[in-house]
Design brief:
Blueprint: H1 2-25, H2 27-48, H3 73-83, E1 86-91, E2 94-99, H4 102-111, H5 123-128, H6 142-155, H7 158-163, H8 165-180, E3 186-187, H9 188-205, H10 210-228, H11 247-272, H12 274-277, H13 285-290, E4 298-299, H14 305-308, E5 309-310, H15 313-327, H16 329-344, H17 346-359, H18 375-387, E6 393-397, E7 402-404, E8 407-409, E9 414-418, H19 419-422, H20 468-485, E10 486-489, E11 516-521
Parallel strand pairs: 2-9
Antiparallel strand pairs: 1-2, 3-11, 4-5, 6-9, 7-8, 10-11
Helix pairs in contact: 8-9, 8-20, 9-15, 9-16, 10-11, 15-16, 16-18, 16-20, 17-18
């Protein structure tokens, strides 16, 4: 045994030398084997990955961020023509899915509404809404559910909309100023934006002063710019130090300006204690929310709204901004687009004004009680909302991993429901890009209440627009008076076909170039 061991031991140098020689000879092939093995592992992982919706190939790290300029209502509609009703984009480290067909919208807004009821929010939105304590950008939580109930029952109820004399008062003021300026070109875009702003401002704050209004418009304009500003940190967090838009200084300044403005209004409302002094004084939105005011917020699922929610100052300020954004530009844009489409389509303008003459007459102004008899006018409103939805792209976020149409949708995916493309789907609408109010005279024409997924001007499901009734009320009131009280002509010999029909994408999609027209009174009675 010892002899064997010694012999074996004596041979070890020879064996070691031989092994070293063999290893040296296979050194290069071994590196190749390692590379092949790694490739096989990655290939196996790739084969087992869950299939995402189709979409354009992205770059490493940045994904499809070079396509940011195509994430508009029209850009997404064009991409849908190539990739279908649901497509996937990788924006930095984030997944984005765009939905552009009624079938896919139904999956998001009805079938799996509970999964897609959250909202995505950028760094700017989170900061400006006091860490999302509003309703528009809050996730689907008990707080959001109670705020929705408060909005429907108190802030945006139809009963409250009808009691707002400010709507009728501001429309009367608009008719008066238009009459005074009859025969001269009027910038209708500026006219209706001023109208809707004054309506919402008075509804929210209960008073209107020129100085306060101008200051608040400046705050709104800065908020609008900040909401839409590009921030690289939203997509690649570790690049947040790159700040070309100056957000690190503009965000605190904007929120401080809003704090000063609305804190002053809240303090004034608290000191007046209107409800304890005179119950007959009409309350505004701040009054309605101060009923639920508390230094510390609280929320539970109680049926009694008074015991279910308590609002802080930050809640009230954030919700006020929701109302101002949701009720000014959206309604103003809809009114301007209605007038634009009518002037671009003279036959439709003639029909709606003839209906007003037949139903209401020319010896008095139109009243709310006339609205239900104005069938064609209602069709004009619907057709405008079909072609120009107030919010062209609504945003949702998945709260968990799920599947849509067999495709994997990861948790936290940003989902863009393109109402603009859906409302113009050629599989559901004849001549979808043509303004034709008569299409809604047909039996079985879709409605916009959220159950027809080919027609979604106000969204659908849990996150449908809570201010729909108020928005329609203001839109119809303003539009019907402008159409009944005046005839409209284009200035400087411009032909209807020459009207610019371009839009600008943002929170809404307003006209790129404001509509300018010349009014002439058409009623036999005094207009004011």
């Amino acid at each position: 045994m010892c002899a064997l061991s010694v012999a074996t031991f004596n041979k070890l140098p020879l064996v070691s030398s031989t092994l070293e020689s063999i290893m040296d000879s296979i050194q290069i092939p071994l590196a190749t084997y390692v590379a092949i093995s790694l490739f096989a592992v990655f290939f196996f992982v790739w084969l087992r990955r869950k299939p995402l919706p189709p979409g354009p190939m992205g770059w490493p790290i940045i994904g499809n961020m070079l396509m940011m300029d195509q994430l508009t209502h029209r850009g997404l509609a064009k991409l849908a023509e190539k990739y279908g009703g649901i497509l996937h984009l990788k924006m930095g480290f984030s997944h984005t899915v765009a939905v552009s067909s009624p079938e896919m919208a139904r999956q998001i807004l009805q079938v799996q509404d509970h999964i897609f009821a959250n909202r995505p929010a950028t760094i700017a939105i989170t900061y400006l809404t006091y860490n999302r304590v509003d309703m528009a950008f809050s996730d689907y939580t008990p707080f959001w559910r109670q705020m929705r109930k408060l909005s429907v029952m108190k802030l945006f109820s139809r009963k409250r909309a009808e009691s707002w004399d400010s709507v009728r008062d501001e429309v009367d003021s608009m008719v008066k100023s238009t009459t005074i300026n009859s025969g001269t070109p009027i910038n209708l875009g500026e006219l209706v934006f001023g109208l809707t702003h004054d309506i919402i401002y008075r509804a929210a704050f209960g008073s209107i002063s020129h100085e306060d209004k101008e200051e608040f418009i400046r705050i709104l304009q800065e908020y609008t710019k900040l909401f839409g500003a590009f921030n690289l940190a939203d997509f690649i967090p570790w690049l947040g130090f790159i700040d070309p838009a100056g957000l690190n200084t503009r965000l605190p300044a904007a929120r401080a300006a809003l704090d000063r403005f609305i804190d002053k209004i809240i303090d004034e409302h608290l000191s007046k204690e209107k409800k304890n002094v005179n119950d007959n004084v009409e309350s505004d939105m701040v009054d309605e929310m101060l009923v639920f005011y508390s230094e510390e917020g609280k929320v539970n699922e109680a049926e009694d709204l008074q015991n279910a929610i308590k609002l802080t100052r930050d809640n009230i300020k954030a919700i006020i901004m929701d109302v101002m954004f949701g009720g000014t530009e959206t309604v103003a844009s809809a009114i301007e687009w209605a007038l634009t489409e009518l002037m671009h389509t003279p036959e439709a303008l003639k029909c709606v004004q003839q209906e007003l003459a037949d139903v209401v007459g020319l010896d008095r102004r139109v009243e709310e009680s006339d609205f239900e008899k104005l069938t064609y006018f209602k069709c004009v409103v619907k057709e405008t909302l079909r072609m120009h939805p107030p919010i062209p792209v609504s945003l949702h976020k998945s709260s968990e991993d799920t599947k849509v149409a067999g495709y994997h949708i990861p948790k936290g995916t940003r989902v863009m429901v393109n109402a603009f493309a859906i409302n113009r789907d050629k599989n559901y609408w004849e001549d979808p890009n043509t303004f034709n109010p008569s299409r809604f005279l047909k039996d079985g024409a879709p409605d916009f209440r959220g159950s027809n997924y080919e027609f979604l001007p106000f969204g659908s499901g849990r996150r449908s627009c809570p201010g729909m009734q108020l928005g329609l009320y203001a839109m119809e009131m303003a539009l019907v008076h402008l159409l009944h009280c005046f005839t409209w002509e284009l200035p400087d010999g411009i032909k209807p076909s020459e009207i610019d029909m371009g839009d600008v994408y943002g929170l809404t999609a307003p006209k790129a170039i404001r509509l300018v027209a010349v009014p002439t009174p058409r009623l036999l009675c005094a207009l004011y």
